[in-house]
Protein backbone atom coordinates (compact mmCIF):
# COMPACT_ATOMS: atom_id res chain seq x y z
CA UNK A 1 0.00 0.00 0.00
CA UNK A 2 2.79 2.44 0.83
CA UNK A 3 4.41 1.79 -2.56
CA UNK A 4 1.12 2.54 -4.25
CA UNK A 5 0.77 5.76 -2.24
CA UNK A 6 4.32 6.86 -3.04
CA UNK A 7 3.82 6.20 -6.72
CA UNK A 8 0.34 7.72 -7.14
CA UNK A 9 -0.10 10.15 -4.22
CA UNK A 10 -0.53 13.19 -6.47
CA UNK A 11 -3.26 11.40 -8.45
CA UNK A 12 -5.13 10.41 -5.27
CA UNK A 13 -4.87 13.93 -3.86
CA UNK A 14 -6.07 15.42 -7.14
CA UNK A 15 -9.01 12.98 -7.26
CA UNK A 16 -9.97 13.84 -3.68
CA UNK A 17 -9.80 17.58 -4.32
CA UNK A 18 -11.86 17.15 -7.49
CA UNK A 19 -14.60 15.36 -5.53
CA UNK A 20 -14.67 18.02 -2.82
CA UNK A 21 -14.76 20.81 -5.41
CA UNK A 22 -17.52 19.01 -7.34
CA UNK A 23 -19.73 18.69 -4.26
CA UNK A 24 -19.13 22.35 -3.45
CA UNK A 25 -20.14 23.41 -6.96
CA UNK A 26 -23.29 21.28 -6.94
CA UNK A 27 -24.31 22.88 -3.64
CA UNK A 28 -23.74 26.38 -4.95
CA UNK A 29 -25.80 25.82 -8.11
CA UNK A 30 -29.07 25.42 -6.23
CA UNK A 31 -32.00 27.36 -7.61
CA UNK A 32 -32.74 30.35 -5.37
CA UNK A 33 -36.40 30.45 -6.36
CA UNK A 34 -37.79 28.13 -3.64
CA UNK A 35 -36.86 30.74 -1.02
CA UNK A 36 -37.73 33.88 -2.96
CA UNK A 37 -40.88 35.07 -4.69
CA UNK A 38 -41.44 35.05 -8.44
CA UNK A 39 -43.28 37.91 -10.07
CA UNK A 40 -44.70 38.33 -13.55
CA UNK A 41 -43.46 41.29 -15.52
CA UNK A 42 -46.31 43.44 -16.83
CA UNK A 43 -46.35 45.79 -19.81
CA UNK A 44 -44.26 48.89 -19.09
CA UNK A 45 -42.36 47.36 -16.14
CA UNK A 46 -38.66 48.09 -15.84
CA UNK A 47 -36.15 46.71 -13.39
CA UNK A 48 -35.83 50.22 -11.96
CA UNK A 49 -39.60 50.38 -11.25
CA UNK A 50 -39.68 46.87 -9.82
CA UNK A 51 -36.69 47.71 -7.62
CA UNK A 52 -38.55 50.80 -6.42
CA UNK A 53 -41.48 48.63 -5.32
CA UNK A 54 -39.53 45.81 -3.67
CA UNK A 55 -35.95 46.89 -2.83
CA UNK A 56 -36.89 48.36 0.54
CA UNK A 57 -38.59 45.10 1.58
CA UNK A 58 -35.41 43.23 0.70
CA UNK A 59 -33.34 45.80 2.62
CA UNK A 60 -31.30 46.61 -0.49
CA UNK A 61 -30.56 49.66 -2.55
CA UNK A 62 -32.17 49.82 -5.98
CA UNK A 63 -28.81 49.23 -7.64
CA UNK A 64 -28.06 46.16 -5.50
CA UNK A 65 -31.59 44.84 -6.10
CA UNK A 66 -31.25 45.22 -9.88
CA UNK A 67 -27.82 43.59 -9.85
CA UNK A 68 -29.18 40.62 -7.87
CA UNK A 69 -32.17 40.21 -10.21
CA UNK A 70 -29.97 40.37 -13.32
CA UNK A 71 -27.51 37.84 -11.91
CA UNK A 72 -30.10 35.30 -10.68
CA UNK A 73 -32.38 35.51 -13.72
CA UNK A 74 -29.68 35.65 -16.43
CA UNK A 75 -30.86 39.07 -17.55
CA UNK A 76 -28.42 41.07 -19.63
CA UNK A 77 -28.70 44.85 -19.72
CA UNK A 78 -32.05 45.41 -17.98
CA UNK A 79 -33.95 43.68 -20.80
CA UNK A 80 -37.21 42.23 -19.45
CA UNK A 81 -40.40 41.48 -21.35
CA UNK A 82 -44.06 41.49 -20.36
CA UNK A 83 -45.19 38.03 -19.27
CA UNK A 84 -41.72 36.97 -18.17
CA UNK A 85 -41.43 35.54 -14.65
CA UNK A 86 -38.47 36.70 -12.60
CA UNK A 87 -37.21 35.80 -9.14
CA UNK A 88 -36.70 38.77 -6.83
CA UNK A 89 -34.75 38.84 -3.54
CA UNK A 90 -37.78 38.96 -1.27
CA UNK A 91 -38.24 35.92 0.91
CA UNK A 92 -41.62 34.24 0.53
CA UNK A 93 -42.38 34.60 4.24
CA UNK A 94 -41.72 38.36 4.24
CA UNK A 95 -43.92 38.94 1.22
CA UNK A 96 -46.85 36.88 2.49
CA UNK A 97 -46.79 38.73 5.83
CA UNK A 98 -46.94 42.07 4.01
CA UNK A 99 -49.86 40.84 1.89
CA UNK A 100 -51.73 39.71 5.01
CA UNK A 101 -51.21 43.15 6.59
CA UNK A 102 -52.52 44.88 3.46
CA UNK A 103 -55.53 42.57 3.28
CA UNK A 104 -56.39 43.17 6.93
CA UNK A 105 -55.98 46.94 6.48
CA UNK A 106 -58.28 47.00 3.46
CA UNK A 107 -60.88 44.90 5.33
CA UNK A 108 -60.84 47.38 8.23
CA UNK A 109 -61.26 50.29 5.83
CA UNK A 110 -64.26 48.69 4.09
CA UNK A 111 -65.99 48.06 7.44
CA UNK A 112 -65.85 51.79 8.34
From TrEMBL:
* SMART domains associated with the record: LysM
Annotated transmembrane regions: none
Q: Which residues form a coiled coil?
A: none
Under the heading InterPro entries, the entry gives: LysM, LysM_dom_sf
Q: Which residues form the LysM domain?
A: 37-88
Q: Which Pfam families match?
A: LysM
Q: Any idea what this protein is called?
A: Peptidoglycan-binding domain-containing protein
Amino acid sequence: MSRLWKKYNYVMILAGLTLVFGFFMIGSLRDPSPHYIKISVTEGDTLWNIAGQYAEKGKMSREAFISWVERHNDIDGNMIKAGEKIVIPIEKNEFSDDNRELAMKSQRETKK
